[in-house]
Amino acid sequence: MSAALSADAMTRPHDFSGRVALVTGAAAGIGLATSQLLARCGARLVLVDRSDAVLQLARQLGPDHAHLGLVLDVCDEAAIGGAIAQVEQHYGRIDVLVNNAGVALLQEAESATCADWDRTMAINLKAPFLLAQAVFPLMQRQQGGRIINLASQASVVALERHAAYCASKAGLVALTRVLALEWARHGITANAISPTVVETELGKQAWAGAVGVAMRARIPVGRFAQPDEVAHLVAYLASPQAAMITGENILIDGGYTVT
């Protein structure tokens, strides 16, 4: 394979022409990298974020009306219902749901507040459930769809100051497996992706200095993950080639959890 073909395969590994993908937390980090990759692969995107930056992103990623930007609270069940109705009217289908929006409110277990616990569970666990429920009727009617939940290495290992976060991500993996089991007969797959620390803008800030050096030392490959690395796994799981993969929790952690 030539270098040119290899580069093209990295920038456009799949053809999603005619398919519609909804990505939450689309304005930054993993969500942004995923949205950019899926757009390059020809998908029509529904870009969901609490920031109105998602509106500009929709315009940047394609010509007018190619992509739909929605400013949305992913914990608001009524707003989600209205958004899915808008998507159905606009595109008539949803083929891929990427539940990427999340929050990490870090506290020692003995001092964690109920408010932070509830907010973590609402965004990291309840919202993906509500969105999956909302897109299910469209995917059922289509007899196919892909649900991809962004979990974390914290779903399978304990991390200090991450009680609520670990619990929410472990719950998200369990939810993923139930959806995979119940909805497989409709041609719908559900999988989770669990990265280690990812060098998003927020990740760089949170893991700057000595704490980052110490964390990298615990990862066998000696570095953090990049948003594009996660995005490419999302694209694969969303592709027809991954039709036999469902109910899995795939780690992108540089070997962290094997030590």
TrEMBL record:
CDD domains named among the record's database cross-references: SDR_c
List the PROSITE patterns hit by this protein, alphabetically.
ADH_SHORT
Q: Where does the record place the Ketoreductase domain?
A: 19-196
What are the TM regions of this chain, as residue ranges?
none
**Which terms are listed as keywords in the entry?**
Oxidoreductase
Domain of life of the native organism? Bacteria
Similarity field: Belongs to the short-chain dehydrogenases/reductases (SDR) family.
Q: Which PANTHER family match?
A: 3-OXOACYL-[ACYL-CARRIER-PROTEIN] REDUCTASE FABG, SHORT-CHAIN DEHYDROGENASES/REDUCTASES FAMILY MEMBER
Please give the name of this protein: D-threitol dehydrogenase
Q: Which organism is it from?
A: Herbaspirillum huttiense subsp. lycopersici
